[in-house]
Amino acid sequence: EMYAQVFETLVEAINEATDAGATGKKTGSIAILDMFGFESFKVNRFEQLCINYANESIQHKYASDIFLAAKEEYEPEGIEIFDFSKVDNSSVLDLIESRTGLIMVLNDECLRPKGNDESFVYKSKQIHRDSTRLLHHGLHRRTEFAIRHFAGDVKYDATGFVERNMDRLPTDLLELACSSSNIIIQRRFGKLADAVAEVKKNYRRKRAVATICTKFRTQLSDLMKDIRNSKTRYIRCVKPNGDCLPLITDHDMTMKQLASAGLVTAIMVERETFPSCLPYSVIWDRFNILLPEDFDTSGDMETKAKRLLEFLLEGKEKVVAGEVIAPYACGKTKVFFRSGAQEELDSQRQGIFDTNATIIQNWYRTILLKRKFGKAREASIVIQSFWRMCLAKKLRAAILLAIVRLQCWARCTLAVTSLYRLRRMKAASAIQSRWRAHDKRSELLRFRRAANVIRRNFVATKNRESMSSALSRVVEEAQMDQKAKDFQKKLYAPATYDRDELLEECGITMGYLTRQLSTQRIRSTELGDQANRAREAAALSQAHASAVESSMAASKLEITKLRGSNARLRSHVGEIKAGTVNLKHLIKNMQEAHNDTKRKQRAEYEDMKTSYEDELAAMKRELREVKRQHAAEVEELRGEMMESEERNRREVERLHEELNATEENHTNDLYKMMDALAVQEGSVRSGVGDGGMLRDSSSEEEELRDRLETMKMNNVKAARDLQAILCDKCQREFPPVMELLGLNQYKGGSRNLQVD
């Protein structure tokens, strides 16, 4: 029960995680159902009944899909087909799951206070005593019953059926599982305990308690409902052997599995079915091309189609178990074909199509070749015209080449003449160009000297003007300084000077000071701007310096790290160099050891090679000796065989002579007996002698016949002895010897003797 609950929890979790219906979209599913195999053991219990019940349901679905659909198609057409009772197992399902079936009887026994297994079997046999599926013979105990399943008869032992069907769980085990520390087991068994408590509370609804059979039937019904609503494909798995070994097949075991799966019956039924069918109109439209021109086409479509099939499938009947089976069957609206019949008609029709297609292809290829020939002719004409054009172009090119050569010669002559003229003109042109260059160069030098003089004069004039302006400013400043000093003196002694004059001088001085102040302000502004620019440049320089310092610090750290890593790398390189030296020494030692081993192995190889060569030479000598001995033995055996053949030949000749002598004796005795029989017959016919003499003649005749039979048996025995001692070659010649000896005439016994 714990395993079942955990398994159900796992299945619910998987279904919930893989459920696509929660999205609201229309989805489909592809499911694989691994069914139980049909089980039949020496002792079959409750589990085997449930498993075989499930197999019966699947077999019923399989028969409905495969055979009942064909039955529904054949019956309206009036086609008599196989007995569907061979594959219909509805009676088995009715026996198990009907209202009075085994499941309901077992459930009633479980609900009854004193229900037991024997009562279940007794009630089942009484209720279904008329059923052909519930067997009554071959049962030795009260708890035994047998069911005729689709796969065979199965005998069940109902011992423990009622107890196993109750589905009861002890209360102490249920309480123990509810107190488990595992949350899954605690939750699942808690729900189960609540359900049990609810059942105990509603005691009047006790009959509604579900048993194992009821649960199994419900689950199986849901499964079959899902299968019926889906498109089903069937795959039968066969276990090849019981030892689980590859490439080995136990045929008895395989055939039992095929019979249990119902495949043998299905194949037998399938042989009797019609795999294909066509309406009468389709048959006439499709296969009337196979009919001769003088075929009778009168009548309705059904009549014409039947006459067509009789004509085309004449002689195609098969004889099975003394019964003639036609290759087709005519229904009301369709014709049903057996396996191979429609394919035969289709192959004939395809043959006519192939023949006609070959004729059409021949005509089409002819037309294509004619077109191709016309195109080739046109192409040859085009090639010829193109070739003539090429020849004309070559002739024209040759003429043009001659003309060009003449023109070249003329132009060459003119060019040489003009060259001489140009050479004479070139000297004059060189002189003129040199003179003109000298003249221009001289003029350039004059212009350059004049420009230098003008530039020096302009610079001197400009310097004089700036000197005079600076000098005037200095003089003015000196005069103003002097005036300021004089004005200062006058201010210290104002009584001696006129006030207006002082004011005028004061105004002049203030104007001068104002101009000087504005000039100084402008200069201070310019100096402030210069100072700001200097401060900005200093700030930029400082920032750049700080950045440089930080980068220098980072570089120092990086250099320190690089020095450390460099030291580590140097130490690692030293270790690698030391390891390399060690490896070199090791490789050298290994190479020396390898060379030593190689030399030893080479020496051993040479020794082994020498020993093998010696052994090979010895074996060759032994082989030659054996061949000589074999040849001698063969010659000896050949001589013995020839002697044996000679002895056999002489023995055969002797036996032939004995057989000839025996034949002569046998023939003489036969003639004597025949004469005696003739004499006796003549005496009987003439009425000579009395009844006692007739009885004596009859006894003598019987005695002669016995002697003849004895001689025949002796001859046959001698022939068999001769056959036993003859060789194979002589045995092949034994029938002609029998004919030669005349022994074949006695095969019929003494009854074949005739008296003339």
Commentary on this structure:
By secondary structure, this protein is mainly alpha-helical. A hairpin with a 3-residue loop joins strand 7 and strand 8. The longest helix is centred in the last third of the chain and has 188 residues. The strands form 3 sheets. Strands 1-2-3 form a 3-stranded antiparallel sheet, covered by helices on one side. Helix 2 crosses helix 3 and helix 4 runs antiparallel to helix 5.
List keywords for this structure.
single chain, 756 residues, mainly alpha, three-stranded antiparallel β-sheet, extended
Compact overview of the structure:
With 756 residues, the protein is mainly alpha-helical. Helices cover 73% and strands 4% of the residues. The chain is built from 18 helices and eight strands.
Q: Structural class of the helix and strand makeup?
A: mainly alpha
- Give the overall silhouette: extended
How do the SSEs run, as a string of H and E? HHHHHEEEHHHHHHEHHEEEEHHHHH
Topology, number of strands: 8
Give the assembly state of these chains. Answer: single chain
Fraction in beta strands: under 5%
Helix content: over 70%
Number of helices in the DSSP assignment: 18
- Give the CA-CA distance, first to last residue: 100 Å
> The biggest beta sheet, please?
3 strands, antiparallel
Radius of gyration: 67 Å
Strand order of the largest sheet: 1-2-3
Question: What are the SSEs and their pairings?
Answer:
Blueprint: H1 2-17, H2 46-77, H3 90-97, H4 102-111, H5 117-127, E1 134-135, E2 144-149, E3 152-157, H6 161-165, H7 171-178, H8 183-201, H9 212-228, H10 251-260, H11 263-271, E4 276-279, H12 280-287, H13 301-312, E5 318-320, E6 323-325, E7 328-330, E8 334-337, H14 341-492, H15 499-686, H16 691-725, H17 728-732, H18 734-741
Antiparallel strand pairs: 1-2, 2-3, 4-8, 5-6, 7-8
Helix pairs in contact: 1-8, 2-3, 2-9, 4-5, 7-8, 12-13, 14-15, 15-16
